[in-house]
Amino acid sequence: MKKIITVLIAVTMLICLCACERETDKIKIDYAKLNDVKASNVSYKVYGEFDGTYVLMIDVEGANYSDSLHNLTVDGVDFHFTQIRTFDVYRNGEFCTLTEAFNRGLLTHENLLTVRSNHRADYEQLYKSYEDNALILDEVTAAYIELHPYYTADNLDITIYGDFDNTYVLQILYRATTDNLVHVETVAGISFYYNVGYTFSVYHEGEFYSLQTAYSKEWITRDNLLEMRAKHRAEHKELYIAYEEEHQN
Predict the structure, then answer these.
(1) Going by C-beta distance under 8 Å and a sequence separation of 6 or more, which residues neighbour residue 151?
(2) Which is the most buried residue in 76, 107, 193, 234, by most CB within 10 A?
(3) CA atoms of 166 and 37, how far apart (whole Å)
(4) Would you say 90 and 97 are in contact if contact means Cβ atoms under 8 Å apart?
(5) d(Cα 1, Cα 9) in Å, to the nearest integer?
(6) Which helix (H) or strand (E) holds 66?
(7) Which residues contact 128 (CB under 8 A, 6 or more apart)?
(8) Phi/psi zone of residue 121: left (φ > 0), alpha (ψ -120 to 50 degrees), beta?
(9) What span, in angstroms and rounded, lies between the C-alpha atoms of 210 and 208?
(10) pLDDT tens-digit profile, the chain (249 residues)
């Protein structure tokens, strides 16, 4: 009798494994058809499976995923990514975004928290960096408003472009700004181009400084400037190319 039970368990496990593999193959095949790629080039990681709804991060061999930090918030749950892509959600042969899946009732708030926990386990340092930056942004915003009381947290858009030993390079943008002229700032022979009414500001020990001042005081290095320019150029590529072409002629 024991032997029969053991065999039945083994057969059941084999059936489940085969079903799982078929589902895996189906996800790859469906994604490949939808995106006109080979199924053999598709791979993915499951960050959550909820009653037949799969939350996936899909990779396609040979695809060019641009590096760019960005966030996604669904029902108050924050996710952070290092490339221009987010999760795909798969159910019954169809794909949708995480936001769409939540809005359609395919995922609950608790499901989102599970996905975030699983994703954070793979990108702990990235999530910690965002959390640390959030604290700094609160401090920076309060300090900037104290210095310029006509601004409020609602009409300021502050981005941290670099953290160099507690010296923070910031893009501080007033949301009502409509200046479309190109501004150029050159520090240590490295040029930055802006098409709105701002340049970088540097926050150091509770005070704000220009990029040039921070460089002169050796709070940031030339390598730091090159790193920032590469990031800024990647986000404003068309502006940089247009300006460079115009001044080459």
Answers:
(1) 144, 145, 174
(2) 107
(3) 45
(4) no
(5) 13
(6) none
(7) none
(8) alpha
(9) 7
(10) 555 555 444 444 444 434 444 555 899 999 999 889 999 999 999 999 999 999 999 999 877 766 666 788 899 998 988 877 789 999 999 999 999 999 999 999 999 999 999 999 999 988 887 787 777 888 888 999 999 898 888 888 888 888 888 899 998 887 655 556 778 899 999 999 887 767 789 999 999 999 999 999 999 999 999 999 988 888 888 888 887 777 665
- The residue type found at 38 is K
Look up tokens 């930055």; give the residue.
192
| DSSP secondary structure letter of residue 84 | S
**Amino acid found at 192:** F
Q: Which residues contact 203 (CB under 8 A, 6 or more apart)?
A: 136, 140, 143, 167, 168, 170, 209
Residue 4 tokens, joined = 């029969």
Residues in the chain: 249
Distances (CA, A) of 195 to 85, 158, 172, 208, 232: 26, 16, 13, 22, 12
| Backbone angles phi and psi of 105, in degrees to 5 | 80, 15
- Residue 100 neighbours by CB distance under 10 Å: 13
Q: How many Cβ atoms are within 10 Å of 67's Cβ, its own excluded?
A: 9
Helices (H), the chain: 2-35, 98-103, 109-122, 124-147, 211-216, 222-235, 237-248
